[in-house]
């Protein structure tokens, strides 16, 4: 199965796996090098690899999980306290996140508009009531427009 859309900072590594009503999309990050978060030095020296499995937006009426292969790099700066660091797809995922940013935004919008966790299961984006409430409270508040006419009671 080919993916008809782009996943930010990633490319599909292998074929998509389908398990009943669940899709698993294996992806790799596009960057050839990693950049140390402390000193900003680029490195190509790979220490190890591990996988992350965040939930993503549904595709073809199926829940979707990304299988992201993340590399850990050696920091080449001898003054750096970190010996290794992991590449981070910041536009796609927050650190230690279990869902992509775009899935969290979609769940929060549904939570504001429809109030819900039950409706999200029908959209193949399941989340608990507490999770939806937490996502909604994290949304930035919109600035109210300044009043044009102020009356006595205002």
From TrEMBL:
Q: Where are the transmembrane segments?
A: none
- Return any one Pfam family short name: Zn_ribbon_ISL3
Q: Identify the residues that the record assigns to the Transposase IS204/IS1001/IS1096/IS1165 zinc-finger domain, covering every copy.
A: 34-76
Please give the InterPro entries that the UniProt record associates with this protein: Transpos_ISL3, Transposase_Znf
Q: What is this protein called?
A: ISL3 family transposase ISMno5
- Annotated source species: Methylobacterium frigidaeris
């Amino acid at each position: 199965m080919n993916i008809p859309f782009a996943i930010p900072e990633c490319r599909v590594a292998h074929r998509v796996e389908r398990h009943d009503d669940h899709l698993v999309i294996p992806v790799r990050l596009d960057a050839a090098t990693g950049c140390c978060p402390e000193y900003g030095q680029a490195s190509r020296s790979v220490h190890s690899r591990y996988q992350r499995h965040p939930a993503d937006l549904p595709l073809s009426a199926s829940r979707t999980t990304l299988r992201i292969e993340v590399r850990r790099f050696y920091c080449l700066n001898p003054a750096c306290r970190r010996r290794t660091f992991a590449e981070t797809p910041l536009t796609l995922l927050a650190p230690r996140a279990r869902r992509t940013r775009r899935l969290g935004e979609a769940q929060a919008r549904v939570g504001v508009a429809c109030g819900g966790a039950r409706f999200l299961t029908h959209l193949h984006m399941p989340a608990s009531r507490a999770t939806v409430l937490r996502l909604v409270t994290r949304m930035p508040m919109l600035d109210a427009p300044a009043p044009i006419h102020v009356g006595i009671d205002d």
